[in-house]
Write a structure and sequence with these properties.
With 266 residues, the protein is mostly helical. The chain is built from twelve helices and no strands. The two termini are 44 Å apart.
């Protein structure tokens, strides 16, 4: 009787056999085989390496642009490294090289294969989180107070799954050419399964080669995107910026899952 009471179960009645009792209430102390699996060190090491980088080529906007470019050419399969000369991808060669350098270093350290596609997804997420955290740290009057703000109000984001395979050839891009109207961007985002809300989130960081203000001015020519941008003004002014940062990260995760083919063991 003590065994059952110790695990939160009522003692069996005389009419219940041991087999019937186990069928009704499986014992909670029997772990599944997956509980004994050793997690791969790759996700944490990749994330830490990108988060700690000070390379200007890994500015979060550039990493997000690189992820968008890869997703728009056949899904996130690492084909960007073969498409850097495409007119839709100006200025991304240094970013691709910096991502490759981190990928190769972590692969050498762990002895485990890491695709460029996986490294790209982790880079976009890690660099964006670092930028979001830096804004909150800067709100503190001292570094110590900034660290307290981050601990109390920093947002926690889901990590991407890994296991993508790299493509061996380039693919046509859905992205418009530089200088294209906002309608072309709406069409491109629709082709990626994203709408006006996601374009309002990511667009200021990826549309055109000018400033964020110039990109936003272009985006506001579309009424639906303009309304979504208006809705983000208050969110960006909050201390936590949760209504802005969480949807932004979810949009990145959706891009990272765009038509992926996975490899085992990562």
């Amino acid at each position: 009787m003590a065994l059952y009471l110790g695990h939160g179960l009522a003692p069996p009645t005389p009419s219940l056999t041991r087999r019937r009792l186990l069928a009704i209430a499986p014992l909670p102390f029997l772990p599944s085989p997956a509980a004994f699996a050793t997690p791969s060190p790759v996700p944490a090491l990749l994330d830490a390496a990108f988060a700690a980088s000070t390379s200007q080529a890994l500015d979060y906007r550039l990493c997000v642009r690189a992820l968008l470019a890869d997703a728009a050419s056949g899904g996130v399969n690492g084909s960007l490294r073969l498409e850097l000369a495409a007119p839709q991808n100006p200025g991304l060669a240094p970013t691709a090289a910096a991502i490759e350098a981190v990928r190769a270093a972590v692969e050498t350290e762990t002895g485990l294969p890491i695709s460029f596609a996986d490294a790209l997804v982790v880079a976009a997420r890690a660099r964006t989180k670092a930028a979001f955290d830096a804004r909150l740290l800067a709100r503190g009057a001292t570094p110590e107070k900034g660290a307290l703000l981050l601990k109390a109000y920093g947002n926690a984001f889901d990590a991407p799954r890994l296991g993508r395979l790299d493509a061996s050839e380039a693919s046509p891009s859905l992205l418009p050419l530089p200088g294209a109207p906002v309608a072309a961007w709406r069409e491109a985002f629709a082709g990626l399964g994203l709408g006006a809300a996601e374009l309002a989130l990511l667009g200021p960081d990826v549309v055109g080669a000018g400033s964020e203000a110039e990109a936003e001015a272009l985006l506001r020519r579309d009424p639906a995107v303009a309304a979504a941008l208006d809705g983000l003004v208050l969110a960006k002014g909050l201390l936590t910026r949760t209504p802005y940062e969480m949807p932004y990260m979810r949009a990145l995760l959706r891009l990272g899952e765009r038509r992926v083919v996975r490899q085992k063991g990562v």
